């Protein structure tokens, strides 16, 4: 398995397949990510058909334990988390993933 996919990898892949200037591709990729981040910051879900949905969910406050001081309880406050739910097409592609090489 190769290293993680980076924003730079995305830009280069689009550049190589389209021939558009890297600077323009980088700007479009960044603007796309900015729009997604802004929507999530506003508490909106982001649905990308055939890919998946980024859902903003609320985690309830709870009591946790500090592993270094297990006798003391720590309050973990309510917070927003992002959950990704894969779309049908992506789920189908993941079925072919070689799990032994992860």
Give an overview in words.
By secondary structure, the protein is α+β, with helices and mostly antiparallel strands. It has a single domain (7-101), classed as IHF-like DNA-binding proteins (HU Protein, Chain A), CATH 4.10.520.10. The chain is 38% helix and 31% strand. The protein has three helices and five strands. A three-stranded antiparallel β-sheet has the order 1-2-5. A hairpin with a 3-residue loop joins strand 1 (46-48) and strand 2 (52-59). The longest helix has 20 residues, at 22-41.
In short:
This protein is 38% helix and 31% strand. With 102 residues, it is α+β, with helices and mostly antiparallel strands.
């Amino acid at each position: 398995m190769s290293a993680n996919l980076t924003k730079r990898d995305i830009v280069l892949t689009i550049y190589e397949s389209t021939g558009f200037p890297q600077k323009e591709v980088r700007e479009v990729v960044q603007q796309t990510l900015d729009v997604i981040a802004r929507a999530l910051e506003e508490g909106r879900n982001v649905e990308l058909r055939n890919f998946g949905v980024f859902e903003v969910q609320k985690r309830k406050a709870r009591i946790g334990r500090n592993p270094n001081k297990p006798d003391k309880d720590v309050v973990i406050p309510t917070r927003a988390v992002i959950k990704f739910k894969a779309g049908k097409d992506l789920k189908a592609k993941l079925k072919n993933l070689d799990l032994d090489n992860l």
